[in-house]
Amino acid sequence: MLTPLAYGLAVALTLFVAFIGARFLVSPRAAAAGYGVPAKEDGDAAYLEIKGLRDLVFGLLGLALAAFASAHALGWYMLVVALVPAGDALIVRRHGGTWAAALGIHAATAVVVLASAALLFAV
């Protein structure tokens, strides 16, 4: 019973990250607003696309690990990748984003990713 839950949560999270990455590539300004720090109109869109590529690759890597590696390998991946939303929370606050975005989006995501890692280690 625990194995499908552990893998299901990990796959859902990695699909979500891949979706976020694709959104930053397709509609970078809207994605930045959803991130919690709207992009400036005259800002360099390349940095938004870099974030999109990073997230898309992280999502695809997670899916590859879910398909071809052990639960522990996927668990280590989730544990390490939890640093990204935790860091994102700090970045949002540092650049004028709201506490709601920092905690409600990014810190909460980090907690869910850590829970996913814990489930994968328990399998």
From TrEMBL:
Pfam families: DUF4267
Protein name: DUF4267 domain-containing protein
UniProtKB keywords: Membrane, Transmembrane, Transmembrane helix
InterPro entries named in the record: DUF4267
Keyword Membrane: yes
Regions that span the bilayer: 56-84, 96-122
Organism name: Actinomadura syzygii
Keyword match Transmembrane helix: yes
